[in-house]
Design a protein that fits this description.
single chain, mainly alpha, two-stranded antiparallel sheet, 14 helices, about 5% strand
């Protein structure tokens, strides 16, 4: 493994693990706050028990997210020193603000965890809300920094120099809103379906049914609403990519030849040698309509992109198709849930209904990983779109592959610890939080 591949692989492993921790850390505190609110309003002890059980999961993911996020901050300087040298002064503001949000979240979480029976009940609830708001703000700020890499703004690039830097324009670049919206909805849908799937499994096993039923309902409502809204945010993101990153959009769609009535390809395997897609289903004009709001206007294909600037089409397209397939399935499940809630309440206790959500437990996070692959691989060969190539930003330090092995081991160890702790917590629920 050469040092360039090692550096990219290490960053991919680190981001792949951290994005799961951060999504859960963004969303679970709000689930917790909703359950806490329902306990205060109704006095039903089951909601208090759900809140206390979830708060332990929030604490676990906060700790692991802090560790993995700290590792990532070191990796940026260690693996990509040239990138940080030039980009740090421009897009450093969202990272700085993310640090502030993190500290607020940590303080509020401390108040919440140790505030039971010590604070006014509404102040105690409010600290949990602050945990959730801070977590979402942290995620949006980090995505803002990533969106700058996809759509750099807030500076003039003259003769290799970065001049007239405006950190506000850099933070609120042309892609930040679409990326932040898409990522936030992805976090809610992925976490909602994962949490709901675990509780559905416990219901199917006849374990502490009332506890898990209320928990399932809170989680799946968030997850289903986000999954149903996600295609609309995806449309916004795709239009933004067509405008600012046409090579990425063309790679996502494996769209090789610019033409009127540009077709949308469903599925298929790109044949990069012959510049075509095998086994895909083409719908003439649909890509033109989705991008340009009419069926005739051509969309830029890969034939307009210089060969040296072309993203890895195979990986980008397959990851994109996987994300779309899973997202569509989750949207359908969300619709099925609301049909059951409003018209077919008898479905809610059926095994086939619970099994659908048990099966979907990992779907959201698979889609998140696929979407993140599209975002990062689809931007290649650029680390800053159109400005700096990834190969020019990598560390010159030899032997970087050793750190790849070390950090990979750390992340797998963290994940094993998280799985063990969560499994133990789930098994302890009937013992600690049973409500007859």
């Amino acid at each position: 493994m050469n040092d360039f591949i090692a550096a990219r692989s290490q960053m991919a492993i680190s981001l792949g693990f951290h994005i799961i921790y951060s999504c859960i850390g963004m969303v679970m505190p709000l689930f917790m706050a909703v359950s806490h609110y329902k306990w205060i309003r109704t006095g039903d002890a089951v909601y208090k028990n759900v809140t206390q059980a979830w708060s332990k999961g929030v604490a676990i993911f906060f700790a692991t997210g802090a560790v993995s996020g700290t590792i990532l901050s070191f990796e940026l300087g260690l693996l990509w020193p040239k990138f940080m040298e030039h980009a740090g002064p421009i897009f450093g503001m969202p990272f700085s603000l993310e640090g502030v949000a993190f500290f607020i979240e940590a303080i509020a979480l401390g108040f919440f965890l140790y505030g039971w029976n010590r604070f006014n009940k509404w102040f105690h609830w409010f600290t949990g809300v602050i945990v959730g708001i801070s977590g979402i703000a942290s995620g949006i700020l980090v995505v803002s920094a990533n969106s700058w890499m996809n759509n750099p703004a807030g500076f003039d690039y003259v003769n290799g120099q970065y001049l007239n830097i405006d950190p506000i324009k850099a933070m609120f670049n042309g892609s930040w809103f679409s990326e932040a919206l898409h990522m936030t909805l992805a976090a809610f849908s992925a976490t909602g379906f994962a949490v709901a799937g675990i509780h559905a499994l416990m219901i199917a096993r006849q374990r502490n049914i009332r506890f898990h039923t209320q928990a399932f309902k809170i989680a799946i409502i968030f997850g289903a609403v986000a999954a149903i809204l996600q295609p609309f945010s995806g449309d916004i993101s795709a239009k933004n990519a067509a405008k600012n990153q046409p090579a990425k959009l063309a790679a996502m769609e494996a769209y090789y030849h610019t033409q009127s009535y540009s077709p949308l390809v469903i599925g298929g395997i790109p044949d990069t040698l012959n510049k075509k897609v095998k086994y895909g289903i083409e719908i003439p004009g649909l890509l033109s309509f989705l991008v340009n709001d009419n069926f005739k206007e051509p969309v830029k294909g890969l034939d307009t992109i210089p060969d040296q600037d072309e993203p890895p089409v195979m990986v980008t397209h397959l990851a994109f198709e996987l994300m779309i397939a899973i997202g569509s399935a989750m949207m359908l499940l969300g619709i099925i849930y609301f049909i059951a809630l409003w018209k077919k309440r008898s479905w809610l206790n059926k095994n086939w209904f619970l099994n659908l959500f048990i099966l979907a437990t990992p779907f959201g996070f698979i889609a998140v990983e696929a979407g993140w692959t599209v975002t990062e691989v689809g931007r290649q060969p650029w680390i800053i779109q159109g400005i700096m190539r990834t190969s020019a930003a990598v560390t010159p330090m030899p032997g970087i592959h050793y750190s790849f092995y070390l950090f990979t081991a750390i992340y797998f160890t963290l994940s094993i610890a998280v799985i063990f702790l969560l499994s133990r917590q789930i098994k302890m629920v009937p013992e600690l939080y049973d409500v007859k």
